[in-house]
Amino acid sequence: MTKLLLSLHVLAAILAVGPVTVAASMFPATLRRALGPSGASTMATRPGDGDALPTLRTLHRICRVYAALGVAVPVFGLATADSLGVLGDTWLITSIVLTTAAAAVLALLILPAQERALAEADGTSLSTPAPPPALRAPGRLAMLTGVFNLLWATVTVLMIIRPGSTTGT
Predict the structure, then answer these.
(1) What is the structure's pLDDT at 148?
(2) Residue range 97-123: mean pLDDT, rounded
(3) How far from chain centre, in Å, is Cα 66?
(4) Which of 58, 72, 108, 139 sits between 20 and 30 A of 28, alpha carbons compared?
């Protein structure tokens, strides 16, 4: 049963977290292209790249859908840890904390920032000073996505080289 749970955990991580990391990483560059060379006006008034808005919508949808599917990763992970009897191990607790931090960065910072960027792109943003956020949005999203990716990479490394591993030295 442990091998099945571990297989499901790894598959869920690859199939759910992988697309989120890729789509979230592509979003800032696509947003920069959409804003055009100056980035000072919204895409609704002067688009920089006509294909960018549908691409941004698709990338955001991928992030939302796969973030929801990503809940399976810690569920299978905790079931695997329970079957291995390692729930109290420091490396696992650290991984749980980092996974929670990554989920929080995605749910509370990245996805809302993408939604704001899309609202501004559609010209539906209610904020009055549109140019300054438009100029900062791609850089801020890139930074947040980098933090998200770094957290997941750290969790992955912990899972592979965990202390007490039976896979060798």
Answers:
(1) 97
(2) 93
(3) 9
(4) 72
Q: pLDDT above 70 covers what percent of the chain? A: 80
Query: Tokens 């939604």 identify what position?
Result: 115
Q: Where are the alpha helices (DSSP H) in the chain?
A: 2-12, 18-35, 52-69, 72-84, 90-104, 111-121, 131-160
- Does 39 have pLDDT greater than 60? no
What Å distances lie between residue 20 and 10, 39, 46, 51, 60, CA to CA?
Answer: 15, 25, 29, 21, 9
pLDDT surpasses 60 at 126? no
CB distance 102 to 152 below 8 Å: yes
How far, rounded to the nearest angstrom, does the alpha carbon of residue 15 sit from its chain's CA centroid?
13
The more confident residue out of 136 and 5 is 5
Alpha carbons 124 and 139: distance in angstroms, whole number: 21
19: left (phi over 0), alpha (psi -120 to 50) or beta: alpha
**Which tokens belong to 169?**
């030295």
Asked if residue 137 lies in contact with residue 58, where contact means CB atoms within 8 angstroms, the answer is no
99 alpha-carbon distance from chain centroid = 11
Number of CB atoms found within 10 A of residue 127's CB: 11
Q: In this structure, are residues 110 and 141 in contact, taking their beta carbons and an 8 Å threshold?
A: yes
* Contact between residue 148 and residue 102 where contact means Cβ atoms under 8 Å apart: yes
Cα–Cα distance measured from residue 108 to residue 147, given in angstroms and rounded to the nearest whole number? 13
